[in-house]
Design a protein that fits this description.
This protein is an all-alpha fold and 183 residues long. 69% of the residues lie in helices and 0% in strands.
Length: 183
């Protein structure tokens, strides 16, 4: 079996990309000063609370849910972008989270940051797995055109995975709004 025909290969690639991007921008966030061009918004002020900025929890839940569902579904567009969009999405998500987390640790400390991200951090699982699936599908469609050893793509399996990822995203959005932001 070709290495590009194994789903685990793409999970490893996406995971490595995410971790490297996160670490780079985390370091940028931790070592940024007030004059840096890598600044986040004023939500990360020293001692600031995210709940101060939330007026309507149900509205915030819908907003976060739409954003997260859009990200997971867009990762599956790797099917038509030949795996390119999931790579960009992984860089964007890993970089943004690393920058915000690093800046927030610098401003508020490790305990504050972990308390506000850990309860809903399992949302990373569907993001990473959907990006790996999008990359796998896109690259394997191209490879099936050129290789004599074609791999049968089990579409129903990927549809079931997408449904599972969406359920996890709903739970993560709920935890983010009603648990993490109340801490």
């Amino acid at each position: 079996m070709n290495i590009f025909q194994k789903r685990s290969t793409f999970i490893y690639v996406i995971l490595i990309l995410y971790v490297c991007t996160f670490c780079f921008f985390f370091n940028v966030g931790v070592h940024s000063d007030g004059n840096s061009s890598f600044q986040t918004n004023s939500l990360i002020d020293k001692g600031g609370s995210f709940t101060t900025y939330i007026q309507d929890q149900e509205g915030m839940f819908i907003y976060i849910l739409k954003n997260n569902i859009k990200s997971v579904i867009l990762n599956y567009t790797g099917l038509v972008t030949f795996g390119f969009y999931p790579i960009l999405s992984t860089f964007k998500n890993g970089g943004f989270f690393g920058l915000v987390f690093g800046t927030s640790i610098e401003a508020n400390g490790v305990q504050y940051c972990i308390a506000h991200t850990l309860p809903h951090s399992f949302e990373l699982i569907p993001f990473i797995l959907s990006a790996a699936d999008g990359m796998f599908l896109g690259i394997n469609i191209v490879l099936n055109f050129f290789l004599s050893d074609k791999k049968e793509i089990e579409w129903i399996v990927f549809l079931k995975r997408l449904c599972l990822y969406l359920i996890l995203i709903i739970l993560a959005a709920f935890c983010e709004v009603f648990i993490s932001m109340k801490l």
